[in-house]
Amino acid sequence: MPPDIYRMFSSRKLILLIALLVTLSITAYVIVVVIPARLAEKAYDGARRIGQDIREALHVTPHITVNNTVVLQQQTPVLELATVTQRFSHRHAWSNKWMGSTKKITINGTFEAKAGFDLNQRFELIITEDRAIVTLPEPQLLSLDLQGDLTFEDDNGLWNRLTAADRSDAINAFTTDARTYARQGGFILDARKHLENQLTEILKAHGKSVEFRYRHVESVRPL
After folding, report:
1. Do residues 125 and 55 lie in contact, with contact meaning Cβ atoms separated by under 8 Å?
2. Which of 199, 26, 221, 207 is closest to 120 using CA atoms?
3. Domain boundaries defined on the chain
4. Computed over its alpha carbons, how large is the radius of gyration of the chain?
5. Which pTM value belongs to this model?
6. DSSP annotation of 220
7. CA separation for the pair 176, 171 (Å, rounded)
8. How far does the chain reach from its first CA to its final CA, in angstroms?
9. By the 8 A CB rule, do 217 and 140 touch?
10. Region 121-129: what's the mean pLDDT?
11. Cβ(215)–Cβ(137) under 8 Å?
């Protein structure tokens, strides 16, 4: 083969080799960098939309993480998220016995209980391709307000007479008993179920299955 033709074929091979290397480099770059970046951006955009939907429903933005990257920080314009508000009637009998004589005050009244979540604790979502792990503090009784419709049934002892201090003690015992009832009743469980239903509906609309985890609260906030 003449030298000129040989050099021409060699040049073509070199050009083809260079073109192949460039094509492989571009393909590798697209596979390794461009596609993962676009998939990540799509995941981050989806997480932001989830955060927006939760904010519109609950007026709270959770701490959202995708692939170990924080997409949204928790934003809490209020310090508590009340998901259940319930009124209930309560009755309590206070009594005092002295030297065989018993005095009694029976109190009836209505309370309004609010149960939900203390947002001083983190409300967090970890989002994967098809799943969301929601971590919340344990729900608790947030407030208990007397509605001002108290009625009293007084029963004096023969020589153990009722006093103004007795009425004050009876009201304190009545409120304490109502608080115990509210914490042991179904309000707190209802608060958990209500929030789980709301979040499940939002996340299901984004194609996510949901797992709920609850962080133990070391101390219950005093009311």
Report:
1. no
2. 221
3. 43-215
4. 33
5. 0.71
6. P
7. 9
8. 99
9. yes
10. 88
11. yes
